[in-house]
Amino acid sequence: MAEQEEDFSSLPLPDRFQHKIWKVRKAAYEDAAKQFEITPDEHDPVFRPFLNDPGLWKGAVADSNVAAQQDGIAALCAFLKFGGREHCTRTRSHTLTSLVEKGLSSTRAATKASALEALLLYVELDVAAPVIEELLPALSHKQPKIVAATVAALTAIYHNYGCKTVDPKPVLKVLPKPFGHADKNVRAEATNLAVEFYRWLREAMKPMFWGDLKPTQQTDMEAQFEKIKGEPAPKQERFLRSQQAAMSRAPPPGEGGAEEEDEMFLSKVPANFHEQLASSKWKERKEALEALYTCLNVPRIKDADFGLIVHGLAKCMKDANIAVVTQAAQCVEVLAQGLRKGFTKYRSVIQSPIMERLKEKKASVSDALGAALDQVFAATSLTECLEETIEFLKHKNPQVKEGTVKFLIRSLRTTREAPSKAEVGQISEAAKKLLAESSEVLRSSGAEVLGTIMKIMGERAMGPHLEGLDDIRKTKIKEFFETAEVKAKDKPKPPPAPVAPKAAPAAAPKKMVKKPTARSAAGLKKPAGLGLKPPGKKVAPPLASPKRAIPSPVPVEEEAPPPPRAGLGRGLAGRSLAKAPATNAAPPVSSMSPPPNAGLTALEKAELEELRLDKDRLLRQADELRQERSRLNSEIQELKNQNAQLIEDHTRDVLSIKAKETQLVRSRADAETAEAMCAQLRREQNRLKHALSAAERASNHSPSRELPSPGRDGAHGEAGTYRDSMYGAPLDGGRQDYRSRARMSMTSSIGEEFQNGTGAYGRNMLSPDLEPASNGRSSAASGSGRASPAPPSYTSERMSRTGGTASGNGTGVESWKRAAEVTSALKAKIELMKARQNISKH
């Protein structure tokens, strides 16, 4: 045996695949699978023999030995797994039928699993349509186990690849067939397939087959659907090779690929999300939010209409169950993180509910709410969030105050744009109120807010806001100022810059003193005169001018280039000194005016943004409605075509039925006519038989009365002698025999005439001589009575030559006349019947 095994292993794999010994085939399948697994690519020469002769796989899949079949299907799976698209397309037509009939219905679990895997690989390597086409005919198989296995395979295909990759319409059209199967296992598998379709299509699947189900089946299916309504939307578990290649070429997460993936985000949200969110059971609400979190937890989300979802999340912030609140806060966090600036339009909807829920003392809830607020702030700005934040700092609940002030501190630390002076004033006033709170946490948080603002704006800018605070609080604020870390750019610092040159004039006078001293006499006289002309309101500048008149004009002269453009004279130094305070006093007024304008602009921007969102939403709805209308129009047209086809088929069927009914009526009429004719012919036949019998009796009685007449030239004795010698019977016996034979001949002839429809009864079938048997020559000439009859003249001449008696001659003539009359009567009857038959046919 060892030598034989070595010989078998030396054979090529194709020869071993077809070997008559099942163990050799089994070993060949195992060796082939191992060789396929170690191939470097799909172009390896190991695959070539099986590509050139794909029929080898048909024998392997349908191997008569179950052990060998198991390894054969496993080898096919390896062939497909490590092969390419060519391996699929060349072998698919040879193996799919055997996989369904022999593999899926096998009693071995490993064989079933390998057969199913082979079907999934056939889908993965190319497309699903050819595989589905091969599986659908198996739904009509006569063996229930094959039908059930086929339905289970379809369920696995749609479960792994989804209804977006595999078209569900061909299967939905034939789905009522397994539902109506007599086997309960087939119906159970059909239910599983329908549930799988419902996971992907939801209510969209029902119009395809729902009307073909029985009411009880519809009720059972609705119960099954209720169980999976709360499940998240299914995801494709296996991908086609083409999809895998596309994903490998896609950019890394965070780039365009993430945006392309997120374009289909709204379709991934469970269809029953809002229904579950409104459920009375908190677990269902939490499960809905968990499913939404799974969809939202992506690096980037493309902007879309998330208004309903955000409103639902805002409603969840008021939920009595903290688990639901926590999960909703996490959803807000990931949504704001994914949308980024696109989340701005939803801030006003979600910020207040989150802050209102900050009253929860549980750390996990407050942390989740804080993280959600941080992402909302990151997606918006301090200016947008500040108004509601300031309002909640006045909340009566200390927990809400504490959470809000912490959020404000985090916002000030992370903002990259410094607040405006008006915003600084609002924050400072709110923070100073917190310093008077009874809670140490709030007092400390208020000081931290002021210290952080001071870090952003600077000590000098915050000085006016800290007036009226005691030294202890100022010290606390100073500590937070020194430790605070901020990211905002210090924009308020440029205004204090002009103050620095005021301390620098100490070095400047060396240059500037020489120039003004040369012109001091003339220069000071004109400003003095000019300074007296204006009203006495500006008396202070002249008093300070003796010492600072020289340094102060210097910066004015250095900054003078802009004024000359306005047409001011070069020598009016005193007037510039008088106007300088006015120009310095004007900027604060102008600086205070922008905040209202800025506030109005923000409101207008927000309103404009809302209007734009409404417009975009309406445009999207219009596009969706147009698409829906086009889809419905196409469905209507398709239904019209189907209706026309059905009407045509119905008309054709009705015409065919009417034609068949007409043929049936005609056939029945013909049958009735034939039966009536047969009955009439039978009656006529019986009547003719009776007439013939009467005629025979009449013909037999007339010769019997003439026979006893004496003497016929001694012929009687001779005839008697002749008959005695010839027949061995007396004359009477010969006459009786003659009559019986003649009756039998005439009866049979009449029957044949009625059967054949001929009118030659008397001429063809009657015996030529009906005269008595006394004439020996006449009897001899007549023979057996089947000869053609001679005319009466010929018969009479022959009888006269032979010396027959006159009475005998007369009797023969009368017999012939009666026969002729009977014949003519029969012919007339037959012609009359034929005429009636023709009339009935027409």
Write structural notes for this entry.
Keywords: Cytoplasm, Cytoskeleton. This is TOG domain-containing protein. InterPro entries: ARM-like, ARM-type_fold, Stu2_CTS, TOG, XMAP215, XMAP215_CLASP_TOG. It contains 44 helices and no strands. It is an all-alpha fold. The chain folds into 5 domains: 8-126, Alpha Horseshoe (Leucine-rich Repeat Variant), CATH 1.25.10.10; 131-228, Leucine-rich Repeat Variant (Alpha Horseshoe); 260-483, Leucine-rich Repeat Variant (Alpha Horseshoe); 503-560 and 570-583, no CATH class; 715-841, no CATH class. Helix 5 runs parallel beside helix 7 and helix 27 (421-434) packs antiparallel against helix 28 (440-457).
Number of helices: 44
**What is the H level of CATH, i.e. the homologous superfamily of the largest domain?**
Leucine-rich Repeat Variant
Write the CATH fold name of the largest domain.
Leucine-rich Repeat Variant
Q: Low-confidence spans: pLDDT under 50, at least 5 residues? A: 252-263, 492-599, 704-740, 747-808
Structural Rg: 61 Å
Q: How many domains make up the coordinates?
A: 5
Strand content: under 5%
CATH architecture of the largest domain: Alpha Horseshoe
Largest sheet: none
Instruction: Return the CATH class of the largest domain.
Output: Mainly Alpha
* Number of DSSP strand runs: 0
Please state the overall shape, judged from the principal axes of the Cα atoms: elongated
Q: Distance between termini? A: 89 Å
Q: Assign the structural class, choosing from mainly alpha, mainly beta, alpha/beta, alpha+beta, or little secondary structure.
A: mainly alpha
The overall pLDDT average reads 76
Which percent range fits the helix content? over 70%
